[in-house]
């Protein structure tokens, strides 16, 4: 119905227009031309062009609002004018009614009013059309001009100021709190004639979110309505002005770190000769110190410290105790902290220093990282405690992201290995990477291959959570490699041939978390983004430079030229060092893309909420929570001044809300013709958030009470979605659907398919797939128009999630499910909804995204897992991307990798930020290739393997059957263990032995088999099962592992031994317990961390002191059944417990719900079903499972 | 009469050959990223039923005209076509589903299938041609 043919400046509709994939829009030549002509085009300026000329901007917004108008008005003319108008006057068969929101009564006056409102539009539609055309044309014209003039104006300034990614200062606590890039190059202008490449870049630096900054933010937000886009351009200036306040507080550290860098420089100068590359970074650090005066200390120290990440990630780079830095846990939690904050420019420093001093990593780090407590820092390599006492001000998130012991204590061969390498390659140029890998084969990790007798060794769980295996690369590459939190491979030693892979019986695949919240991310503004000319790979740390002017792609091995401006290094302000550029020093970088990467102007943030208001929904009472959350977070919604928002409600009809600025109150427009849905007033339904804020607030306040007396039980979800799609298709954006029951009317209606008697069937589980292709088609349509659909299903009965989930699965949305939701009867779910919504509304979001995964020639991807639409062989189309989305891919080895020693994988995620910037986030992972089976096992990453297997099993159970999937899981363990045992010939055949790297494999697979998704024999509702499957497909590894194998801790006797310190709080570290009832003693209290929920189980004879202090009740009997919070008591045990729980909470974006469980509690079964090592009536215990495997193998 | 049967079969077979070639071209376009999965699948799904009917007609025609050998030759392919069409899961958008086609090597298996069919139809084409000439001579 919406005739997209009429949309002017936008190059046709989404799917077709994007077919090539914007990531792949190849126009380096164009970029180069422009560059040589003079003005450097940086996307930073592109928006600022609008910003500096407010009239222009208004034209822009005019265009956007005109689009729907134009699109639909012909339609109104053709089809509806007759009916529309006539039905108006002939009241009996009213198609469109307009009770005003407040009165909720239809009377003639009001319909009159509506008529008045609508008629000018319909009658004057032709006029509107021409106007629209004119304005959009003029927009095109002027914008083109403007942008060029902007380039002209800013040519000099373009050098400056990229705001380090994450922190958009404007944006509420979620965005402001994170360590916002600080040490900026203040808008510096380089004389253009002399230097070809102008380059603004901020990286490695962490800023302090101080008061001044907030002030700045405020002023900007107030400005932002008037001068929308100039904002970002100016931010750095603001920073500079505010920074001095900080620097004074940090003067000690400043001087310390300055001295430090100075000494480092000297050290380097002494040992390295002039030509050696590794010398330069030092200069870069110190140079920076001169450059940005106020932030020197922080920049330099963090630059120096953060580089030392890989081998021993447990240390925090900043022990600052600046008051401003103690983040509130809430906001700190928003950032899953990245341990890979490589300031790679400093990394060679480490090497040399290291070599010079002859010390191991931890030592150097302790010197560099924390100027204040440095001497007292225990060396992690020598102590068995994961975290020492010496780090008083660890960032909570940082700690959590890298919880395990930095260097496995049980790995003595590790350190000598390092030193050995350093001696062997003292000044190794890490850029000759392909060479580097070669020499690694001999350094085995004997630890990961140590045979473990599974049936005898009962305590195989690690004390704290399991670390990701470190690829067996040389130390330089290892430091440069991508963080395992964002990018993980199931086999960190990639087998050379498919035959070897088949022999190992382990799946080869990648687990991605590409849009993870990062605290530190180098953001690069450059007019040319250097990419391989044949495979379009972005330049990365693992390419090799043949000489100064040429580099060899590490994926396709093509030799490319280094562009002229890449020769200039903005960090050191020196020429002729392409390998020192940040792109080549960091495996995770973000580029700000030029207009070559856009097919249309970056879209604004558009949010549409589609709410179920049928009787069932009103009964459940979710509307209050949703409206309340929205009201609270309205200002924190990511976006800029163009942000738009709209609401649709539906029962058996679809209600739209006119929120056009200027109305005295929101207007409800009811469309009852659900078979042929149309938009009553297309241009006033999605309104600018800032202009119509009052109306939106009115609506949100009124909405929960508007439908209290409804008798409507039907739900016309399909038509409401169609309407939502029509509303969104001109711009794209996010649709959030709240549904409480089975859709029963109109297109996409569903019937109940679940047979309750089959819930605990052991043989057949049917209806795991969708019943209709309506939702899939809708999702693909939405995806084509860059719209994602997020589903919140809050239902008490069967709602056919298998069908409904399709709308999110293929449009890159996300799915939330709240079984038996009720705002009063089920407070835990209500609280969960509240928390989820808070995160959902405020988290970062990327629009119109595409992701491409490239890998070294010889490897190919054959299956993708996650929520997206695969547009071509390696291109995923993601209408929206959010930081909680995970992806997995399965790979196969098509050509043998004999002629290479390293393989690389690169994901590039191109998206539009909520501020309307086009950005590309690139992750690159490098892994060694091995040719022996033992090496393959040594490098197996059991968590990644299990997560990939879970994804594969979900596919299998939908396409084949659940029983097949379960068999496949068991076979996966059996085959791989059998293959391992056959390689290790000296083992007894009768015992079940696994390599140390895979010792948890059987346990995890058993846990998978007992998951809701795959269990049989235990009563499982179909929706629960399907939801668990959806989660497996779309959760990133960290969250999925918690779901599969929760961590259990005993918390009644928390002691300070081996505790860690976070923000001056002592966080005890109890060991992880086996998930078995044998560990549950009646005298104890246990905490189970299932990712999205915490259970606290209290034993019957639990110490009364604990109950009194921690729970706040006199004795066991008086503890209530539904308890979801711990009181704040002064007692030490209470403090410890709470600090431990909040520490666990901080490690994840979603704040989990707490549930206290007593013995008689009905929720007890929920708790006990997670004790996966125990036997249930339908499933084996862990020991039995092992015996079964052993029998099968020895047969 | 017999010649009419074979002339018809020949024409039908030509159509099926063209269809098979069209399938191969479209799939390889998808493989090379010239078109996107959505349009590829909607293009191909349109022709699944015509292909099925076209082939079923020849098969039935051979049964009616009592050409047992040719009938038995055609039967497995016709059965496979029908089986494939019936077994499409309810949530899929046809035999070719844009959301699945890039997964689990489906694209390759579709390609292989189209190739095999092309070969089969070429074989049939010459067989019909021979039979037609024979029938015409006999007449």
TrEMBL record, chain A:
Residues 298-307 have a biased composition (Low complexity). It is found in: Cytoplasm, Cytosol; Cytoplasmic vesicle, COPII-coated vesicle membrane; Endoplasmic reticulum membrane. It is a peripheral membrane protein. Residues 1-11 have a biased composition (Pro residues). The keyword Transport applies. The keyword Protein transport applies. Residues 529-565 form the Zinc finger Sec23/Sec24-type domain. Residues 846-930 form the Sec23/Sec24 beta-sandwich domain. Residues 602-841 form the Sec23/Sec24 trunk domain. Residues 319-331 have a biased composition (Polar residues). InterPro entries: ADF-H/Gelsolin-like_dom_sf (IPR029006), Beta-sandwich_Sec23_24 (IPR012990), Gelsolin-like_dom (IPR007123), Gelsolin-like_dom_sf (IPR036180), Sec23/24_helical_dom (IPR006900), Sec23/24_helical_dom_sf (IPR036175), Sec23/24_trunk_dom (IPR006896), SEC23_SEC24_subfamily (IPR050550). Residues 941-1041 form the Sec23/Sec24 helical domain. Residues 1-20, 287-392 are annotated as: Disordered. Residues 1067-1141 form the Gelsolin-like domain. Its main location: cytoplasm. Pfam families: Gelsolin, Sec23_BS, Sec23_helical, Sec23_trunk, zf-Sec23_Sec24. Keywords: Cytoplasmic vesicle, Protein transport, Transport. Belongs to the SEC23/SEC24 family. SEC24 subfamily. This is Protein transport protein Sec24B isoform X2. The lineage of its organism: Eukaryota, Metazoa, Chordata, Craniata, Vertebrata. The gene is SEC24B.
TrEMBL record, chain B:
The chain crosses the membrane at residues 5-25, 52-75, 118-137. It is a multi-pass membrane protein. It is found in: Membrane. Keywords: Membrane, Transmembrane, Transmembrane helix. The keyword Transmembrane applies. InterPro entries: Cornichon (IPR003377). It comes from the Eukaryota. Belongs to the cornichon family. This is Protein cornichon homolog 4. It comes from Apteryx mantelli. The gene is CNIH4.
